[in-house]
Predict the structure.
Amino acid sequence: MIHSGSEVSFKIDLGGLYLQEFSIEDADSIYKISNQPEVSNFLPDWKSTREQRIDWVTNYEIPANKAFLEAAKSTGDIEGHFLKLGVFISATDEFIGWCCTGIKEELPAPNREIMYAISAEYHGNGYATKASLGLINYLFTNTNLEILNAVALQHNPSSKKVIEKCGFTYQGQRMIDDEWFNHYTLKKREWRLRPLT
């Protein structure tokens, strides 16, 4: 879906790509991408019907984004808040995936994570890495966040590569929902603003 961005105000320009908070018009694209086998195999919780996705975006994700952004702007304290951003190609405004941050309850505190997904037709272009770097830069620059987590299923080498390119450090394996994940962390004090290319 092509995104007009007319009602959305928060945007992170990444040069060639941009991140923007979810809008109702994104629901159909999120639904389609989340049901692609290349995405749903690794993110089964994102799979939905079209009607569920519209409900989730409208009644949960948009209000949650607004609460996150208000907290970040007013105090920098994002404790407990979630932010879900669409990944868009700048030249066409096409929605091609998402990059999000929230609490991963299965991890020990502090347990804020970053996660991402890119439509299968755009895999292999570095978009997940670029989007993740953009969100990490924003979080470490504009919030009180001191440590960020990432997890990847052991049989997901592409995600492992994205996480490592973003500078995360491997912490070991964790069992989550009866599957083994590689667990990584990234500390603000070790972070250096990275180029988004």
Summary: Residues 58 and 137 are 27 Å apart (CA to CA). Residues 11-190 form a domain with the Aminopeptidase fold (CATH 3.40.630.30).
